[in-house]
Design goal:
Blueprint (H helix, E strand, L loop, with lengths): L21 E3 L8 E2 L1 H6 L8 E3 H16 L9 H8 L1 H66 L12 H9 L4 H23 L2 H24 L9 H22 L21 H11 L6 E8 L7 H10 L3 E7 L4 E6 L12 E5 L4 E5 L9 E2 L4 E5 L7 H9 L11 E5 L10 H9 E14 L1
Antiparallel strand pairs: 1-2, 1-3, 4-12, 5-6, 5-12, 6-7, 7-8, 9-10, 10-11, 11-12
Helix pairs in contact: 4-7, 6-7
The structure holds zinc ion.
Length: 452
């Protein structure tokens, strides 16, 4: 047996010619496999965590051997085995459920596709029909111009402009349908108005009115040659604005409906029951918030549901009890947290709360907590608020909604207001203020803190 097995060639998705070489030893990280190129582009810092795959295999093997030594010399008790009796029925039930879900997803997607396609085809046909009508509209304008010339000048056919009543009625009767009749009647009404304007004036003015009117008509006709009708779809600048807005809305929609609620995640017996942090993160949190000689154990007390149905319960838990760490994953993928603790746990005395940003390795220690009615206060620097409403603070909520932040309150179970970073809020008005301070919370977990 080869004592030093090698990993075969696996293509790096970012650098197709490069093989996967190293592993980032942080199971919760979004990217754990690295080629040499990736390694060079990676954030410097904890480079000790990037180990060659072969080294990792050695470490895994050693740890497997060690864990095998913890073997209980007995059969597992019935209380542990009973769940296995349900495996088959549970799998069957889930399979039925998944089948049902898939057919609903298919039906819904088909409906969306059809609605979108129909809407586009409808508007396309309307535009094309409007474009076609532009030809006859111009032709009608030319015909009207000639008619005006014939009526008021010695032009074209010998003027027999006064029709008989019979002529007018014959004209109306020649209409093919109601619509055409309506159009003709409307034209007679307009013509009557025009005639009225002319005949109301005294004789010398009448000619001027007629000439002005026809000159104006001619100018308008000429203008058409300068600017032909254009569809927004065919006009690059106008269209691109509309297109950007549409794709943004579409992206929001896709992001929102693309989620799966109550997703089944891989369970581990000894790992921390968290979908946000790993055991390695706990070590980092400990280093941030606790004296060196202490150890930190966390027990999950609750998670915020994706639909925020337990928001008040979790908010109360996180904001009123002591020995509590709240961990949040933001829409930017950053991990934020707040520890509320009695004096004897924290590093320095007189500290009641520590707020931190694990991703940026930032923290702020605070001696007292303020009170707000609008939020749950996890620390002086971190508040959480429901996605539905910043309680009693409608104007702030409206500000968030109307700002062009990549932050749609409806996408997150909760929002978090932070000010871990001090400094002046420069930039136009409220926008930079909110960008700095308000984050969408994708996940939130509350842990009880144990320490030695
Ligand atoms: Zn790469």
């Amino acid at each position: 047996m080869d004592s030093n097995p090698k990993l075969r060639f696996f293509q790096c998705p970012c650098h197709p010619s490069e093989p996967v070489k190293r592993v980032l030893k942080q199971p919760a990280a979004s990217k754990i496999l690295y080629c040499v190129q990736c390694l060079m582009e990676a954030d410097s810092g904890s480079t000790a965590f990037y180990v060659p795959v072969e080294v990792l295999v050695n470490e895994v093997y050693t740890s497997l051997v060690a864990s095998k030594e913890v073997k209980i010399d007995a059969k597992p008790p019935e209380s542990l085995l009973s769940i296995l009796k349900e495996e088959e029925s549970l799998m069957k039930k889930l399979a039925d459920h998944i089948y049902d879900q898939k057919s609903k997803v298919n039906a819904q997607a088909t409906k969306i596709e059809r609605t979108l396609v129909e809407a586009i085809q409808k508007v396309k046909n309307e535009i094309i029909s409007k474009l076609d009508s532009q030809l006859s509209a111009l032709q009608a304008n030319f015909a009207e111009f000639k008619k005006q010339l014939e009526k008021h000048f010695e032009y074209g056919k010998v003027s027999s402009i006064i029709s008989s009543k019979q002529d007018i009625m014959r004209d109306l009767n020649s209409s093919l349908n109601f619509k055409e009749l309506e159009k003709k009647v409307r034209n007679y009404l307009i013509e009557m108005e025009e005639n009225e304007r002319i005949t109301n004036d005294i004789t010398e003015v009448r000619e001027m009115v007629v000439i002005d009117g026809i000159k104006h008509f001619k100018t308008k006709l000429q203008e058409i040659t300068n600017q032909f009708p254009e569809s927004i779809l065919a006009k690059e600048e106008l269209f691109s604005t509309q297109w950007t807005q549409l794709t943004q809305k579409l992206n929001d929609f896709v992001l929102h409906v693309g989620k799966i609620q109550n997703e089944i995640i891989p369970l581990r017996p000894l790992g921390i029951e968290s979908s946000i942090i790993s055991p390695a993160n706990i070590e980092e949190i400990k280093n941030l918030v606790m004296p060196k000689e202490r150890r930190l154990y966390l027990k999950l007390l609750g998670k915020l549901e994706k639909n925020a149905s337990n928001y008040d319960e979790i908010g109360t838990l996180a904001s009123t009890r002591k020995n509590i760490i709240t961990i949040m994953k933001t829409h930017k993928g950053e991990v934020l947290g707040a520890l509320r603790c009695p004096l004897q746990i924290c590093k320095e005395k007189d500290i009641h709360a520590v707020s931190f940003n694990l991703t940026k390795n930032l923290k702020k220690e605070e001696s007292k907590t303020q009170r707000f009615t609008d939020y749950y206060v996890l620390s002086n620097s971190i508040f959480i608020t429901s996605k539905k409403m910043l309680k009693g603070n409608r104007s702030t909520h409206e500000s968030i909604k109307t700002h062009t932040l990549a932050l749609n309150p409806q996408d997150y179970p909760a929002l978090c207001v932070i000010h871990l970073e001090d400094g002046t809020h420069s930039g136009p008005l409220d926008k930079s203020y909110y960008e700095k301070r308000i984050q969408g919370i994708e996940e939130l977990e509350v842990f009880e803190v144990f320490t030695n």
